[in-house]
Design goal:
A hairpin with a 4-residue loop joins strand 2 and strand 3. Helix 1 crosses helix 2. The chain is α+β, with helices and mostly antiparallel strands. The two termini are 18 Å apart. The radius of gyration is 15 Å and the shape is globular. The chain has one domain: Gcn5-related N-acetyltransferase (GNAT) (Aminopeptidase), CATH 3.40.630. Coenzyme A binds next to strand 4, helix 3 and helix 4.
Protein backbone atom coordinates (compact mmCIF):
# COMPACT_ATOMS: atom_id res chain seq x y z
CA UNK A 1 0.00 0.00 0.00
CA UNK A 2 1.43 3.37 -0.99
CA UNK A 3 0.52 6.03 1.57
CA UNK A 4 0.75 9.13 -0.54
CA UNK A 5 -1.43 12.22 -0.98
CA UNK A 6 -1.30 15.60 -2.67
CA UNK A 7 1.93 16.91 -1.15
CA UNK A 8 3.35 14.27 1.22
CA UNK A 9 3.88 10.55 1.71
CA UNK A 10 4.50 8.22 4.65
CA UNK A 11 7.32 5.67 4.68
CA UNK A 12 8.56 3.40 7.44
CA UNK A 13 11.33 4.69 9.70
CA UNK A 14 14.85 3.25 9.22
CA UNK A 15 17.79 3.48 11.61
CA UNK A 16 19.35 6.11 9.33
CA UNK A 17 16.45 8.41 10.37
CA UNK A 18 17.72 8.54 13.97
CA UNK A 19 19.33 12.00 13.63
CA UNK A 20 16.25 13.45 11.96
CA UNK A 21 13.92 12.05 14.62
CA UNK A 22 16.10 13.42 17.39
CA UNK A 23 16.26 16.82 15.67
CA UNK A 24 12.47 16.95 15.97
CA UNK A 25 12.13 15.49 19.46
CA UNK A 26 14.86 17.66 20.95
CA UNK A 27 13.52 20.89 19.41
CA UNK A 28 11.74 22.98 22.01
CA UNK A 29 9.36 24.32 19.37
CA UNK A 30 7.87 20.85 18.96
CA UNK A 31 8.42 18.81 22.12
CA UNK A 32 6.41 20.71 24.71
CA UNK A 33 3.58 18.18 24.63
CA UNK A 34 5.59 15.04 23.85
CA UNK A 35 7.35 12.56 26.12
CA UNK A 36 11.08 13.24 26.38
CA UNK A 37 13.72 11.13 24.65
CA UNK A 38 17.43 10.61 25.22
CA UNK A 39 19.63 12.82 22.99
CA UNK A 40 21.90 9.82 22.27
CA UNK A 41 21.86 9.01 18.51
CA UNK A 42 23.16 5.47 19.07
CA UNK A 43 20.39 4.80 21.60
CA UNK A 44 17.84 6.10 19.09
CA UNK A 45 19.27 3.82 16.37
CA UNK A 46 19.10 0.87 18.74
CA UNK A 47 15.48 1.73 19.56
CA UNK A 48 14.63 1.85 15.82
CA UNK A 49 16.32 -1.51 15.16
CA UNK A 50 14.24 -3.07 17.92
CA UNK A 51 11.16 -1.29 16.59
CA UNK A 52 11.68 -2.96 13.17
CA UNK A 53 10.77 -6.30 14.82
CA UNK A 54 7.54 -4.72 16.09
CA UNK A 55 6.85 -3.50 12.55
CA UNK A 56 7.27 -7.06 11.18
CA UNK A 57 5.06 -8.46 13.94
CA UNK A 58 2.31 -5.85 13.51
CA UNK A 59 2.80 -4.39 16.98
CA UNK A 60 3.54 -0.82 15.94
CA UNK A 61 4.28 1.20 12.78
CA UNK A 62 6.51 4.26 12.79
CA UNK A 63 6.56 6.56 9.77
CA UNK A 64 8.58 9.44 8.43
CA UNK A 65 6.36 12.04 6.80
CA UNK A 66 8.12 13.31 3.70
CA UNK A 67 7.28 15.76 0.96
CA UNK A 68 6.91 14.36 -2.53
CA UNK A 69 10.37 15.79 -3.36
CA UNK A 70 11.81 13.48 -0.66
CA UNK A 71 12.41 16.13 2.03
CA UNK A 72 11.52 14.66 5.44
CA UNK A 73 9.24 16.96 7.42
CA UNK A 74 7.83 14.93 10.28
CA UNK A 75 6.94 11.70 12.04
CA UNK A 76 3.79 9.81 12.96
CA UNK A 77 3.30 6.43 14.67
CA UNK A 78 0.60 3.78 15.07
CA UNK A 79 0.80 1.81 18.33
CA UNK A 80 -1.33 0.38 21.16
CA UNK A 81 -3.25 -1.73 18.65
CA UNK A 82 -6.29 -3.16 20.45
CA UNK A 83 -9.02 -5.58 19.39
CA UNK A 84 -11.25 -2.90 17.95
CA UNK A 85 -9.12 0.26 17.71
CA UNK A 86 -5.65 1.56 16.89
CA UNK A 87 -3.86 4.44 18.55
CA UNK A 88 -1.72 7.00 16.79
CA UNK A 89 0.69 9.71 17.93
CA UNK A 90 4.36 10.77 17.92
CA UNK A 91 2.97 13.27 15.45
CA UNK A 92 5.36 16.10 14.61
CA UNK A 93 5.77 18.34 11.58
CA UNK A 94 8.67 20.75 11.23
CA UNK A 95 9.08 23.99 9.29
CA UNK A 96 9.66 22.05 6.03
CA UNK A 97 6.04 20.84 6.09
CA UNK A 98 3.63 21.64 3.30
CA UNK A 99 0.58 23.80 4.00
CA UNK A 100 -1.86 20.95 4.63
CA UNK A 101 0.64 18.28 5.70
CA UNK A 102 -1.20 18.00 9.04
CA UNK A 103 -4.50 17.12 7.38
CA UNK A 104 -2.87 14.92 4.76
CA UNK A 105 -0.78 12.96 7.29
CA UNK A 106 -3.78 12.46 9.59
CA UNK A 107 -5.87 11.18 6.67
CA UNK A 108 -3.02 8.89 5.53
CA UNK A 109 -2.75 7.41 9.03
CA UNK A 110 -6.51 6.83 9.05
CA UNK A 111 -6.27 5.23 5.61
CA UNK A 112 -3.57 2.92 6.96
CA UNK A 113 -5.52 2.04 10.11
CA UNK A 114 -8.95 1.71 8.53
CA UNK A 115 -8.14 0.31 5.07
CA UNK A 116 -4.90 -1.60 5.61
CA UNK A 117 -5.35 -2.79 9.22
CA UNK A 118 -9.14 -3.03 8.93
CA UNK A 119 -10.21 -1.06 12.01
CA UNK A 120 -13.43 0.94 12.28
CA UNK A 121 -12.20 3.34 14.93
CA UNK A 122 -9.09 4.94 16.34
CA UNK A 123 -8.06 6.38 19.71
CA UNK A 124 -5.40 8.80 20.87
CA UNK A 125 -4.48 11.10 23.73
CA UNK A 126 -3.50 14.73 23.63
CA UNK A 127 -1.84 16.60 26.50
CA UNK A 128 -4.24 19.06 28.05
CA UNK A 129 -2.50 22.30 27.06
CA UNK A 130 -2.10 21.28 23.40
CA UNK A 131 -5.06 23.37 22.30
CA UNK A 132 -4.29 23.61 18.59
CA UNK A 133 -4.05 19.84 18.29
CA UNK A 134 -7.24 19.26 20.31
CA UNK A 135 -9.00 21.68 17.97
CA UNK A 136 -7.56 19.90 14.94
CA UNK A 137 -8.98 16.54 16.04
CA UNK A 138 -12.32 17.92 17.15
CA UNK A 139 -12.85 19.65 13.80
CA UNK A 140 -12.44 16.29 12.04
CA UNK A 141 -14.99 14.65 14.32
CA UNK A 142 -13.03 13.14 17.22
CA UNK A 143 -14.96 12.80 20.45
CA UNK A 144 -13.44 13.19 23.91
CA UNK A 145 -14.06 9.99 25.88
CA UNK A 146 -12.22 10.74 29.13
CA UNK A 147 -9.49 12.77 30.76
CA UNK A 148 -7.00 12.68 33.57
CA UNK A 149 -4.69 15.31 35.00
CA UNK A 150 -2.31 15.10 32.06
CA UNK A 151 -4.28 14.07 28.96
CA UNK A 152 -7.58 14.30 27.15
CA UNK A 153 -8.52 10.97 25.52
CA UNK A 154 -10.28 10.85 22.17
CA UNK A 155 -11.92 8.42 19.80
CA UNK A 156 -12.85 8.80 16.13
CA UNK A 157 -14.73 6.50 13.77
CA UNK A 158 -13.99 5.66 10.16
CA UNK A 159 -17.33 7.19 9.24
CA UNK A 160 -16.43 10.58 10.77
CA UNK A 161 -13.07 10.57 9.01
CA UNK A 162 -14.67 9.77 5.65
CA UNK A 163 -17.11 12.67 6.07
CA UNK A 164 -14.32 15.09 7.01
CA UNK A 165 -12.29 13.93 4.03
CA UNK A 166 -15.17 14.70 1.66
CA UNK A 167 -15.64 18.16 3.21
CA UNK A 168 -11.94 18.95 2.91
CA UNK A 169 -11.45 17.50 -0.57
CA UNK A 170 -10.50 20.91 -2.04
CA UNK A 171 -7.50 21.15 0.35
CA UNK A 172 -6.17 17.63 0.27
CA UNK A 173 -6.73 16.43 -3.30
C1 LIG B 1 0.66 18.43 15.67
C2 LIG B 1 1.17 19.04 14.38
C3 LIG B 1 1.86 17.96 13.55
C4 LIG B 1 -0.01 19.61 13.59
O1 LIG B 1 0.46 20.28 12.45
P1 LIG B 1 0.06 21.80 12.14
O2 LIG B 1 0.65 22.16 10.83
O3 LIG B 1 0.40 22.64 13.31
O4 LIG B 1 -1.55 21.68 12.01
P2 LIG B 1 -2.65 22.82 11.84
O5 LIG B 1 -3.72 22.56 12.82
O6 LIG B 1 -2.00 24.18 11.83
O7 LIG B 1 -3.23 22.48 10.39
C5 LIG B 1 -2.52 22.81 9.18
C6 LIG B 1 -3.42 23.63 8.27
O8 LIG B 1 -4.62 22.90 8.00
C7 LIG B 1 -5.75 23.67 8.38
N1 LIG B 1 -6.78 22.77 8.95
C8 LIG B 1 -6.59 21.86 9.92
N2 LIG B 1 -7.73 21.23 10.17
C9 LIG B 1 -8.64 21.75 9.33
C10 LIG B 1 -10.03 21.50 9.10
N3 LIG B 1 -10.69 20.56 9.78
N4 LIG B 1 -10.66 22.25 8.18
C11 LIG B 1 -10.00 23.18 7.47
N5 LIG B 1 -8.70 23.46 7.63
C12 LIG B 1 -8.04 22.75 8.55
C13 LIG B 1 -5.22 24.63 9.44
O9 LIG B 1 -6.05 25.78 9.56
C14 LIG B 1 -3.86 24.95 8.88
O10 LIG B 1 -3.96 25.86 7.80
P3 LIG B 1 -3.49 27.41 7.97
O11 LIG B 1 -2.01 27.32 8.21
O12 LIG B 1 -3.87 28.01 6.70
O13 LIG B 1 -4.24 27.91 9.17
C15 LIG B 1 2.18 20.19 14.69
O14 LIG B 1 1.50 21.27 15.30
C16 LIG B 1 3.33 19.78 15.61
O15 LIG B 1 4.32 19.23 15.17
N6 LIG B 1 3.20 20.05 16.93
C17 LIG B 1 4.24 19.73 17.91
C18 LIG B 1 4.18 18.28 18.33
C19 LIG B 1 2.84 17.90 18.94
O16 LIG B 1 2.36 18.57 19.85
N7 LIG B 1 2.27 16.81 18.44
C20 LIG B 1 0.98 16.32 18.86
C21 LIG B 1 1.10 15.45 20.05
S1 LIG B 1 -0.48 14.82 20.50
Amino acid sequence: MILESKSIRLRFVEDSDAEFILSLRLDDRYNKFLSSVSPDVEAQKKWIRKYKDDEKNGIQYYFIIERLDGMPCGTVRVYDIRNDSFCWGSWILNEKKTRYAALESAFLIYEFGFKQLGFKKSHFDVMKGNKGVIKFHTRIGAVKTSEDEINDYFEITEESVEKAKENLADKIR
